[in-house]
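#struct-queue
[09:14] JT: dropping the first one here, sequence first, then the structure tokens:
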Amino acid sequence: MTLISDRRERLATAAPTRHLRMLPATALTLDLVVIAGIGGLAALGREQLDIFARSANVVGTLGMAGPAILFCWLLAIVVAGGYRRNVFGAGTEEFKRVSNATLATAGVIGIACYLTKFDLARGFFVPTFALGLPSLILGRYFLRKAIHGLRRRGALQQRVLIAGSEPHIDEIASVLRREPWLGYQVAGALTPEHDLREETASGIPVYGNIDEAASIAALTDVDVIFFAGGSMGSSNQMRKMIWQLEHEDVQVVVAPSVTDISSDRIKVRPVGGLPLMHIDPPTATDASRWGKRLFDIVGSAALLSLFAPLLLAISLRIRTHDGGPVTFKQTRVGLDGRKFECLKFRTMVVDAEQLLAKLHEEQGYESGLFKMKDDPRVTTPGRLLRRFSLDELPQLINVLRGDMSLVGPRPPLPHEVATYDRDAQRRLRVRPGMTGLWQVSGRSDLSWPEAIRLDLYYVDNWSMMQDLSILAKTFSAVVGSRGAY
């Protein structure tokens, strides 16, 4: 047990996460600046634009009402829990609490002014809250992006112990490592008493038994304890463990054996004190209905009209470069395994397909999507087209025809589909897309298993809001040329 004792000592002397405790103060300062700025702008606009009829004493009423509104607004966000540490960094709870607090403040102040007959200028009140809510949400959004960036660089990390059986520990750890923006640094594991190993199969060091969680939390500098599958034999044990940890400065997280399911499909309903997790069926069938198809038709037609001059310019450039064909047609597999001709601007030499076997041999290719940096088959104009994904614009015609969708899994080649296992076959339950989670998550930088995982997540958790979010993120991914070659 000397090795475990040494590990506990090193964890106890780890650098404390003081910066995490500054997040609420940072958010409070940001909200204060935003609200004060919007209030000042609304007051200035009230005087300069004179939108509503003038009050008798605008300056006097704003001098009293302005600071009061600022204080009540911030107090409402505090009461709503908008500055709790567990709302920062992920999920929609932070935005919901800020929005609810803002609407409540506007309602209370409006009613109070009406009941007391306080002469608060409408030209100040309406713009303040109309502009204040989106400004606060935008400020929190940029704060979240800054937090994600810092976490990816190793800052604002929370040290995590994962308690459970070895397979569950490694599964949770792989998810936390895959998503560094969450800010969870896996420090070690706690295993059942009968498990005497010193580390898990993935190399996570074991710090002791699960029943020692409270004493280990007291002696070490741990921020979070994840209780995964196999950690507790009964709900009564879990309740007693939480009692033991209530006096420690540690967050308790119960991680069920459920991954890659969106929050929209999960509902937690307590029944008799037992929190039951209800999981809705996968939404793959919803992605094939008329609403998404109508969106694809309208969107592709509009984009083809918008990009018509660009399409013509690219066509002329390719034709004048080497005199070869402008487009390249390749057989791909679409919805329910149906094959179709996928259109692209030609970015390679005319005999690219004949050179492919040689490149496979040189690169040691075995299966999956084949892409390589500095591909010798790519032409000079082709490099620019690939860098900004302009070579894929002709696929808008495929979308209009119904072969593809604007958003969906990457359209696979027939030989790739031939190697699919039963899980990967689920990718074919929706139309392939011009863009998708694979596009906004790294494109060619992704490993084959990771690309499959993202596609399956999209198929099982489709929603129109997710499609709109992916389309918005595609622009930044294309401009940044991340993973494009």
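[09:21] JT: and here's the second one, same format:
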Amino acid sequence: MKRIATGAALAAGALAATALAFAPTASAAVTPTSATITASCGLFGGGTATLTAVQTSNTTATIELTSSAITTPLALSANSITSTLTMKNSTGSDRVFSGTVNPAMAAGAPVDIGPLPGTVAVGDSLDFYKGSLKMVVFGITVTCTSSAAQSPGPFVFTTYP
């Protein structure tokens, strides 16, 4: 009897492992997960930057901006930039991501802002074009804008897995 129970348990385990192997994988709730923009940022210069979005629930997400073309004119300590990223939403109200999240950066270093938390809704379609990134550094506000839509397209938020 013990052998039959052990055999049944092994068979059930093998069946479960096979089912997991063929199960569909979970997909990201936001697509695309990264997009390229060309931004003009005053004192920080301008050029190509990458936005990376992560949806953390049906109502929250983070966005990070990194760029080797946009640089800091001064050395900055970690979490010293107050950033407000406003994304245009083609399905409703603009969405705002804000915080003071940045690594320490040497003068002339590439800019890395975020991940900045914000509120989203299922169906939101967010684009940096006609939005902005405002960074307050030593009391000076630097604003980044873009003259073209992000590529490959807006961040579209779906039901979180």
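[09:30] RK: nice, looked through the second one.
[09:31] RK: Confidence is low (pLDDT under 50) at residues 1-27.
[09:31] JT: good to know. Residues 30-157 form one domain.
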